[in-house]
Every structure is written in C-alpha cells, then in structure tokens.
Task: inverse folding
C-alpha cells in the first residue's frame, strides 16, 4: 500500500523525466495508478519527451486511458497535441485508445491536426475508427475539416462537406 507522499514522489519524478527515481519507486511498490495531490496519475503528468518514462509506467500497469477529470483528455491527447510522436507510439503500442474523446469532443487526431503535427496525424489516421468524427466547438457539432486538408492525408473524396 502506498500513501499520497509516494504518489506525489512518483508523479514528480515522472514529470521531471527522472527515469532512475521512477524505476526505484516502482520497484519499491508504489501504486502506478494512484493520483497525486492534484488528482493526476504519474502517466498523466509524465515528461512527454521521455518515452522511456512511459515504457516504465506502462510496464507497471499504468492505465493509458485515464481521462483528466476537468478536461477529459488522456495522455494520448497530450502527446498528440504537443507533437511527441515517439511517446505516442509507445502509448498506442501499449493500449492507449485514440478513439476516446475529451470533453470538447476532440480525439487525439483533432489536436494533432489543429497543431499541424502531420507525422502524428499519419500515425493516428489508421488507428482512429472514424477520422471524420465531429467535435463540439461552440456547443455545435463542427465538421472535422483540419484532417481533410492536413497534408492531403485523406483524399478529398473521403472528406464530407460541412453540414
């Protein structure tokens, strides 16, 4: 059994990208899915540019589909939005569901396209069940047009017209 101090230590080490401390804490039995003082898991706060941290946390059975309480985003949303392809690949290879929508209806694919991360769009396009799913901008369903224009990844025939 771990306490909140252990959870904070693991989350902090993950956020710093301190692989040695992450490994040590996991080996000592710290619960990889316990939330820190701020309600976030170590995987949710990990330093995105350090895929080795993701590997260690996932090996210890971290849940890659844990959604942030306030925004509904997962670590896959964060990696896609920020452009961390290698980390996103580790996540998707270890069970991250890229079809989970955040509270605004965005998939990781929406966020990658919006930010212009074409390498990530290419990675996600085949993993996404419905790449033309609509999000909820302004309270209305909005066609997901950015992916239709992002580097011509989808042919124009597969992009629907706005409704």
Result:
């Amino acid at each position: 059994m771990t306490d909140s101090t252990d959870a904070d230590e693991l989350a902090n080490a993950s956020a710093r990208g301190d692989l040695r401390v992450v490994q040590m804490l996991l080996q000592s039995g710290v619960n990889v899915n316990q939330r820190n003082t701020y309600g976030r898991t170590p995987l949710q706060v990990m330093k995105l540019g350090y895929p080795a941290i993701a590997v260690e946390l996932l090996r210890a059975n971290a849940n890659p589909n844990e959604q942030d309480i306030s925004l509904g985003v997962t670590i896959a949303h964060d990696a896609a939005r920020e452009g961390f392809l290698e980390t996103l690949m580790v996540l998707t290879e270890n069970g991250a569901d890229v079809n989970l929508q955040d509270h605004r209806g965005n998939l990781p694919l929406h966020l990658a396209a919006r930010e212009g991360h074409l390498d990530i769009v290419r990675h996600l396009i085949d993993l996404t069940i419905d790449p033309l799913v609509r999000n909820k901008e302004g309270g209305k369903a909005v066609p997901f047009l950015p992916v239709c224009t992002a580097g011509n990844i989808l042919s124009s025939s597969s992009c629907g017209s706005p409704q």
